[in-house]
Design brief:
alpha+beta; 5 helices; disordered N terminus; isomerase; DAP_epimerase_AS; DAP_epimerase_DapF; diaminopimelate epimerase activity
Length: about 350
């Protein structure tokens, strides 16, 4: 099957998150998109570039992006590619239907970094339910469907802002599998998200580890592949297992860990009936943490928003850090605050457009 892709790429300044110009790239790729054995010829491409120097999104840029996203040719899937600190997603405008436009199997193909678009997941903007403005659904790169995604919800918010031509500071409500989420797009382009209250009751995370602190599993021992780790289990609407230490090592040096070997053993451990995301954390100070993550259904990623939230909650419960922390991830920093007054966790970070594209369904 021949695939024709049209891609519109915004050029961004390294110090700004505004759109500075659009390039249009057209190519024909000859491939078989339905089987793992694929033959590719070198693409024949034509590049047309134009530059528009702006410091904030210009009216012409907004018009161009909006018109592209609103194209409705039958048989074509229009999308936007975003990333939140390197955790990347394909965003699809699905507001005209309560069911995703593509299947989980098709999402797996699109997420393939060699034979597809390449992403950690596909996110759909669906009509709101239960009084919310929108509904968010996501398929991971392995086809599984998580309850929600922290970096993804920031990308979702920026995508909706473009779809609705929203400007300035604004917020809306999103229905997710983890409950109602409220993102706020700030004046500087970052997104602050009220992630709600963390779930600490062990059976609700869920984990089979025995609770040892007010119904929660805090600094509990778990044998993973013959190594004893100390873990705290937290749900941010999806399950997390956070570790700062293991037997013989009280403070992890996360860059030394081989997550490709350790991560799957945590994810599929019998103590986690719904599998789990796992955060490996190094404490730099009372307000500064460094984290690597093995995500359920996506392997190691450059960032995990819900994981960063769970990490700060776990650090507070273990007495390792305060309630307001910078969490350094491989893709960049997130600011996380677990407020004492309302018990809600707030996440602030970037979400950036990479390009627009379309593919035949």
């Amino acid at each position: 099957m021949a695939i024709t892709a049209t891609i519109s790429v915004p050029i961004t300044s390294p110090t700004r998150h505004s759109l500075a110009s659009f390039n249009f790239f057209q190519s024909s790729l000859h491939s078989n998109f339905t089987t793992p054995q694929r033959t590719f010829k070198y693409p024949i491409s034509r590049l047309v570039a134009s530059s528009m120097k702006t410091e904030t999104p210009a009216k012409t840029t907004t018009t161009s992006s909006t018109s592209f996203l609103h194209q409705k040719e039958s048989g074509f899937l229009h999308f936007a590619k975003y990333h939140g600190l390197g955790n990347d997603f394909i965003l699809i405008d699905n507001r005209d239907s309560s069911e995703p436009k593509i299947s989980s199997e098709k999402a797996v193909q699109l997420c393939d970094r060699n034979f597809g678009v390449g992403a950690d997941g596909v996110i759909f903007v669906l009509p709101g339910i239960n009084g919310s403005d929108y509904t968010m659904r996501i398929f991971n790169s392995d086809g599984s469907e998580p309850e929600m995604c922290g970096n993804g919800v920031r990308c979702f918010a920026k995508f909706v802002s473009q779809l609705e031509s929203l400007h300035g500071r604004h917020s809306f409500t999103i229905h997710t599998g983890a409950g109602r989420i409220v993102p706020e797009v700030l004046e500087d382009g970052n997104v602050k998200v009220d992630m709600g209250e963390p779930v600490l009751k062990a059976s609700d995370v869920p984990t089979k580890l025995s609770p040892n602190k007010d119904g929660a599993a805090v600094k509990s021992e778990i044998d993973v592949g013959g190594v004893i780790w100390n873990v705290t289990c937290v749900s941010m609407g999806n399950p997390h297992c956070v570790t700062f230490s293991r037997k013989g090592v009280q403070n992890l040096v996360v860059d030394e860990l081989k997550l490709s070997e350790i991560g799957p053993k945590f994810e599929h451990h019998e103590m986690f009936p719904a599998r789990t995301n796992t955060e490996f954390v190094q404490v730099l100070s009372n307000s500064h943490l460094k984290m690597r993550v093995w995500e359920r259904g996506a392997a190691e990623t450059l960032a995990c928003g819900t994981g960063a939230c769970a990490t700060v909650v776990a650090a507070v419960l273990e007495g390792r850090a305060g309630r307001n922390c910078t969490v350094d991830l491989p893709g960049g920093p997130l600011q996380i605050e677990w407020k004492d007054e309302d018990n809600h966790v707030y996440m602030t970070g970037s979400a950036d457009l990479v390009y627009y594209g379309s593919l035949p369904l």
